[in-house]
Design a protein that fits this description.
With 335 residues, this protein is α/β, with parallel strands linked by helices. The protein has 2 domains: 2-66, Ribosomal Protein L15, Chain: K, domain 2, CATH 3.100.10; 85-322, CRISPR-associated endonuclease Cas1, C-terminal domain (Four Helix Bundle (Hemerythrin (Met), subunit A), Up-down Bundle). The protein is built from 11 helices and 12 strands. β7 and β8 form a beta hairpin. The longest helix has 26 residues, at 98-123.
Length: 335
């Protein structure tokens, strides 16, 4: 399980082989360490003992630190998880050959396909009740399909030679997607389009918070697969920028985060903002819903897995692809 700490004044300690969580000196939770996959701390004023950190590192349990608005600012993981030299050598070499192009194309294809399926998911009940809205959404989906075709008409020997074309296609498809999300919201929620860091409107604040939690999931999966989180392909290199984390996150944003936020709004749950930040109540609701979504089951490789497991499997598939042992196929969720 994932342990998420989002209350001020909580302390994390260890007793035998159990994680002990206290608040105001009282034990509020005890969890066997062998049941924990990650610990994510999203609040200030949280203390953690070195005994817990050492035990987590020995067991391969990643510890994530997120700001109040969901932005990752630190992470603790075992240095032993980065010891797969061959995978990293191939990852760096792939930046200058066809593998970087093929991986980026597949991730963008998966992103657009997942955007289409999220739109189909929320359009399906409107066919009879709101036929005009249904047709408008499917017109947008059709236009996005043209962008996928355009994606496969572009080619180059290395990613630097084709990144602008790829990002142009990805951006134009995203513009249609977010326009259709606005159509889905209709009169239930004001939404003027996608904004990234610094956004203070309810929808973008909730999306950014969810993406921050997703980054941590993807980061941990990549490290466990022996990959360098900073050596990406779709996103350009920049000091301190985890480009591969951002690359892989693109494939899962829609099914893990967007679908949750849109569903919450569709059901009439208010996303509360106070002083430019999500309220504690809203954050707790989002955390609960994101955790539920990550534990939900999808069909993948002909079998049924949780979304959390699929993220880990895709990280491993990237590693085997870069080593020349397999093809890479993007995950596309159901609708």
């Amino acid at each position: 399980m994932d342990i998420i700490i989002d209350d001020f004044g909580v302390s994390l300690g260890k007793k035998s082989e159990r994680l002990i969580i206290r608040k105001k000196g009282e034990v509020v939770q005890e969890t066997p360490l062998f049941d924990i996959s990650q610990i994510t701390i999203t609040s200030s004023g949280v203390s953690i003992t070195t005994d817990v950190i050492q035990e987590c590192m020995e067991r391969g349990i990643q510890i994530n630190f997120l700001t109040f608005n969901g932005q990752p600012y630190a992470q603790i993981s075992s240095p032993n998880l980065t010891g797969t030299v061959m995978t990293r050598r191939e990852q760096l070499a792939a930046y200058n050959d066809k593998r970087g192009v093929e991986l980026t194309r597949e991730i963008i294809k998966g992103k657009i396909k997942n955007q289409q399926n999220v739109l189909k998911y929320f359009a399906r009940h409107r066919k009879e009740t709101h036929p005009e809205v249904y047709r408008q959404i499917y017109d947008g989906i059709s236009k996005m399909e043209n962008h996928i075709k355009e994606l496969f008409q572009q080619d180059a020997d290395k990613i630097d030679d084709i990144r602008p074309q790829f990002l142009s296609i990805e951006g134009r498809a995203a513009d249609i997607y977010w326009e259709m999300v606005g159509v889905i919201f209709a009169d239930k929620q004001d939404f003027n389009g996608r904004e990234h860091r610094g956004a203070q409107d309810p929808v973008n604040s909730a999306l950014n918070y969810g993406y921050g939690m997703l980054y941590s999931q993807v980061w941990g999966a990549l490290v466990l697969a022996g990959l360098d989180p900073f050596a990406g392909f779709m996103h350009v290199d920049r000091p301190g920028k985890p480009s591969l984390v951002l690359d892989v996150t693109e494939e899962f944003r829609q099914q893990v985060v967007d679908r949750v936020v849109i569903a919450i709004i569709q059901k009439g749950t208010e996303i509360e903002i106070k002083d430019g930040k999500l309220t504690d109540t809203t954050r707790k609701t989002l955390i609960e819903k994101f955790k539920e979504r990550l534990e939900s089951v999808e069909t993948f490789d002909g079998k049924r897995f949780t979304l959390k497991s699929i993220i880990q499997k895709q990280a491993r598939h990237i590693a085997t692809f870069l080593r020349g042992e397999s093809k890479y196929k993007a995950f596309v969720g159901k609708w």
